[in-house]
Amino acid sequence: MKTASLALALLAFTAAGTGTAVAAPPEPQREVIVPAFAHAIANVPGKTLTALVVSYAPGAKTLAHRHGQAFVVGYVLEGAIRSKLDNGQEVVYRAGESWTEQPGAHHAVSDNASATEPAKLLAIFVADSKEKNLVTLDKLSLIHI
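^ thats the sequence. predicted structure below, dont judge the formating
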């Protein structure tokens, strides 16, 4: 069952059990990802350098995720990006700043640090050329009522 359908079914069940209408909370606005380039690395056979432009409207967020075995560099092009890797601290990076992510790292937080200004980053991946899934979102968990 799709997540949206599951959420609606859960809300209908809750409303039916209590006789009270329940509105679904609005989903947070998500990022927009646009591929920038992908190039085989000539002196490192089997590896590809791939870049994605990630744009965030004010307050937009990315769900927690991983990048498999890719090495990642995040470079802020515009605005401010809030980031948290593994069990580290949340850090806000501003335009012109960058960070790296080790292969297998858990990107627990990645969002626009501003509720009023847009933000944009360039995500650069060094990965096996055969790796096509560079972003794997964490599984959604249900909230028990």
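The CA atoms of residues 85 and 107 lie 5 Å apart.
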